[in-house]
Design brief:
The protein is an alpha/beta fold. The protein is built from three helices and five strands; from the N terminus they run βαββββαα. The longest helix is centred in the N-terminal third of the chain and has 12 residues.
Length: 107
């Protein structure tokens, strides 16, 4: 059993991944911008990419980080929508910069 930390777990792609991982009995940790997210079979942790705030327990001992947070793919990608969302996924990436090599498992 592996431990997966997932951003964007409430989106259409995220939900499908969570279901698949749960089917294979993996531990699921969800990083959410909602402070009180409840998701069956997963533990929720607060994350605010705008301020780089993250509950570090979500990443402690995690084997994998799946970063899906960003703009919804079910909305029409107009020029104004792209401009309004530009950078959202990238801003979340800065939060994870610190979890690189020191969080990797030794071979």
């Amino acid at each position: 059993m592996a431990v997966f930390t997932i951003t964007g777990a409430t989106g259409s792609v995220g939900k499908a991944i969570v279901r698949t991982l749960q089917h294979h009995s993996h531990e699921i940790r969800v990083l959410s911008t909602r402070k009180s997210l409840e998701m069956t079979g997963a533990t929720s942790y607060y994350w605010n990419p705008a301020t780089n705030e993250i509950d570090s327990d979500a990443l402690e001992g995690a084997d994998y980080l799946i970063h899906l947070a960003g703009a919804t793919v079910s909305k029409r990608w107009t020029a104004s929508y792209k401009k309004a969302d530009c950078g959202q996924p990238c801003s979340g990436n800065a939060t994870f910069d610190w979890c690189g090599p020191q969080n990797e498992k030794a071979a």
